[in-house]
Amino acid sequence: MEEHRLGADQAGRRIDRILKEGWPDVPLGARMKALRIGLVRLEGRKVSCDERAEAGQVLRVPWAEAPRWGVPLVTPAPEGRDDPPWVLFRGRNLLVADKPAGWLTQPDRPGGDSLVTRVWELEGVGEGSFRPAAAHRLDRNTSGVVLLPLTAPLLRLLADLLRRRRLRKTYWALVAGVPPATGEITRSLRKLEEENRVVEDPRGDQALTRYRLLGTDGEASLLELDLVTGRPHQARAHLAFSGFPILGDRKYAPPVPASAAPRPLLHAREVVLPEDPALEDLAGRGFTAPLPEDMAGVLRRRGIRYTL
């Protein structure tokens, strides 16, 4: 029996996923039998396949080979150069970025600056090779998590998962007013292409936003948003049309809240991938971007404390 101490990369993951990633050459039937008869033990006790591990726990297995997750998943930066601060995660086939407000997700003209072109520079992409692309976009002035597959198969897979709404995307927004503690906004939206804005229209695309109040000072509030659908400008329009515009949103907010910040205080806080076997070692992984300083500063100045 061999013992291995689990690290942060295994924390919160199912035991069967940890075994698959650690010993992929062991047949599935052999892994499941070892679990069933107690040859796999966590902290000395028999464990079920769906139990989730914690960092620091000791996993005992009957295989002599070293686990594959002992090999770093993150590609080291070239010698003498660290990854830039906007890189949250860099794996074999995925880069996760914390896009700063003000950056385009992808270039608007040949040779233009954007998150995607900076990833090309970071990865040393040459002519004729696969060029990483964003699996989803954020508006120029929205900050936060963006997934950038480094291979064509993963790009196709994430596009399919997004289309089937299998990814969980959570946003944080600072808004004017105090909405109820929880709620849903179900307003159909239609985009006016020439004006680059959306309007409420029963003939438009159905859209659903769920929200939760995290904190307030009685005049402004921090909300957690779950964009069940992914319509253009959905969070900004839904909140404004419901009477709680995002601070700094000059497109949808009235003059006073619109002037409260230099940009809409909307942040793509977290993206969680589904437990899909096709994702292999990325299945169930979540990526969180810290609150940007402009939003954190407003919270401090207003004395808004929030609970998760």
From TrEMBL:
The superkingdom listed in its UniProt entry is Bacteria
CDD domains, per this entry?
Answer: PseudoU_synth_RluA_like
Q: Which GO terms describe its biological process?
A: pseudouridine synthesis; RNA processing
Q: Which GO terms describe its molecular function?
A: catalytic activity, acting on RNA; pseudouridine synthase activity; RNA binding
Q: Which UniProt keywords apply?
A: Isomerase
Where does the Pseudouridine synthase RsuA/RluA-like domain lie? 93-240
* Protein family (similarity comment): Belongs to the pseudouridine synthase RluA family.
Q: What is this protein called?
A: Pseudouridine synthase, RluA family
Protein species of origin: Aminomonas paucivorans DSM 12260
